[in-house]
Specification:
Residues 21-182 form the Metallo-beta-lactamase domain. This protein is an alpha+beta fold. It has 5 helices and 17 strands. The N and C termini lie far apart (50 Å). The structure holds zinc ion.
Length: 239
């Protein structure tokens, strides 16, 4: 029985649903594959990857939240940006880390043979969030950094101002589509503009105050022709 459901994005790219609404991305190049994120880790993701990949592969964390690093324990080596290592440590649920963490640097380019992944900073959702840009397909694999409902709170999250700067910089990067960690769909780059406009028109409305996983958060909603944006944040991120 197949334990993971998959959505084909292109001939090389698959969104793998590791848990309900939690996605990892698999990119298969001619000589090397890359698994981006490892979900909560309750099911054997390694067996799944090795059944579907005929080349060596790398495992990369987009950022350190528990629904993206939880399956690291299935693997021997995992790459993550050094700026994010303390976030990973903060959220690690397994008492003793069993995989080796290795640094992956912003600006580096990974050759998968016929295609390349370029590492870009998507700092905001967390301080060391990265995106992997599949250059040949103009596709940015963005983890949680560009989710339609973008969370900006908890350990490691940056300020709204820093998120805004990252979003503006991301619009300068050459890509057409992006993938998120909580959706099987690919989104057009223009949709990021909705987040930018949401921040430019940000209202802190007491009426939206809610408990989100134990944090007192506010919600700002915005929608226009570019798409929909929901920002969920704590007041301290506005300072
Ligand atoms: Zn996250």
């Amino acid at each position: 029985m197949e334990l993971f459901s998959c959505t084909k994005i292109s001939d090389r790219v698959w969104q793998i649903e590791e848990d309900h609404g939690v996605f990892c991305t698999l990119v298969r190049g001619s000589e090397l594959a890359a698994l981006i994120d490892t979900g909560y880790g309750n099911r054997n993701l390694r067996a799944f990857v090795e059944a579907h990949v005929s080349t060596p592969y790398l495992v990369i964390n987009s950022h350190g939240h528990p629904d993206h690093i939880g399956g690291n324990h299935w693997f021997d080596v995992v790459y993550a940006r050094k700026d994010e290592w303390d976030v990973i440590e903060h959220f690690e649920e397994h008492e003793e880390r069993t995989c080796e963490l290795r640094d992956i640097q912003v600006g580096s380019s990974l050759s998968l043979g016929d295609v390349h992944l370029e590492v870009i900073s998507l700092a905001g959702h967390t301080k060391g969030s990265i995106g992997l840009l599949l250059k040949e397909e103009k596709l940015l694999i963005a983890g949680d950094a560009l989710n339609e409902e973008l969370w900006l709170f908890n350990y490691g999250a940056l300020s709204m101002r820093e998120l805004y700067e990252t979003l503006k910089e991301t619009m300068q990067v050459d890509f057409s589509w992006y993938l998120c960690g909580h959706s099987s769909r690919k989104y057009p780059k223009e949709k990021i503009e909705a987040h930018i406009r949401n921040i430019e028109n940000l209202k802190v409305d007491e009426g939206t105050k809610a408990d989100t996983i134990g944090f007192e958060t506010y919600r700002s909603s915005f929608e226009d022709g570019c798409g929909k944006s929901e920002l969920v944040f704590t007041a301290d991120r506005l300072l």
